[in-house]
Amino acid sequence: MVSRFWASLFAMALLGTAEAVLAAPKATAGSELPLQCFVAAGQRYRVDPMLLYAIAEVESNLIPSATNRNRNGSVDYGLMQVNSLHLPKLKSIGIDERRLLDDPCVSVHAGASILAEMIARYGYTWAAVGAYNAGGSAARGVARHQYATKVWHRYSAMVSTRERAMAGGRGANEGAGRRHRKINTIMLQNGSEDSM
């Protein structure tokens, strides 16, 4: 399943199916996730579609209608668990709670835009990924690190799967994949969030 997912995702990315992405039918809760939404959001916000997918896995377990009430009273909505603190800005462009829950593509694009804001603030780093979930407060540093570690594990597994698929299953790129994982593991263990 994962290999087929990545094969189709990379085929879309490589073939430049922007017109097909824009013409894609609206996704509904309970329907199969529209993979092209991750590609389109990644292209629009200059974020790796696999990173967006890994965040969706960690945030909602890929359940488009997921909601979560937080201890601070805020609520997370949809596939990307967009926090209600972002709703005033999102509502100004026509996105409300219902759209985040009813249309996974809207959720992916909203999440990608929030992640892009964090990347603008922290650079393309794991700190930005952690801030997507835990915010930028100094008091939330441990939570940011824990969240980034969860996403990194999902993302790293997908990168390994992609490398095997691109090598035709022969493992030609396994050495490079192991080096990538080792470097990122060391950085996470040492508390460094400086690089992806």
From TrEMBL:
Superkingdom as given in the UniProt entry: Bacteria
Signal peptide coordinates: 1-23
Family annotation (CDD domains): LT_IagB-like
Alphabetical UniProt keywords: Signal
InterPro entries assigned to the protein according to its UniProt record, in alphabetical order: Lysozyme-like_dom_sf, Transglycosylase_SLT_dom_1
Pfam families, alphabetized: SLT
Residue span, Transglycosylase SLT domain: 37-152
Name recorded for this polypeptide: Invasion protein IagB
